[in-house]
Amino acid sequence: DAKESLEQTVEERTKDISHLEEKFRTLFEQSLDTIMLLKAETGSPPTISDINPEGCRSLGYAREELIGKSLAEINTDDNREKIPERIQRVESGDPVRFKSTHIKKNGKTFPLEVVAKKIVIGEQPYYLAVERDISERKLREQEMILNEERLEELVAERTDKLQKTIKLMVGREIRMADLKNEIKQLQKQRDEAAEKSTNPTKL
After folding, report:
1. Which of 48, 75, 145, 200 has the smallest number of CB atoms closer than 10 Å to its CB?
2. What does pTM read for this prediction?
3. Are 101 and 109 in contact (CB under 8 A)?
4. Got the DSSP string for 29-87?
């Protein structure tokens, strides 16, 4: 009975593990984000141990071309320099979030947001990285900045025109006031002249 119970437990655990592996593989294969398993290398950048279809698509490589490739090869120069510091942060065991830029097979670059964590499979350390292409977000941010700059230019232009209009209106009002005063003076002089003509003896 004890043997049968142990065998049943082992069988159940095996099924559980198999089910979890199937769920992970489904997530790995169907994810809209790049999922990359990186093998830790002593004294050099990690190498790609596995990558999902979305990662292959975003980089423009076949999976076979990426397996074994150094992480440095798909990073821009400025991001290659940051790899040791980022690996050091990931080694702490906590998930680490940062932004990077990858190079496609055709030489084009694209920005991405990365969350990476150290894991151990067997006795081999790996880094699990989930990456999201943020090209569209960057484009929207740039469009927002351009729109803000255009709006500021438009406001400045409208403000300048409004100030000129106000100055022009104020100038006209001043000239109108001066003109009214001149008319009043002329009317007064006319009235005085008319009074003298009708009453010549009045001093």
Report:
1. 200
2. 0.61
3. yes
4. HH-SSEEEEEEEETTEEEEEEEE-HHHHHHHT--HHHHTT-BGGGGB-HHHHTTHHHHH
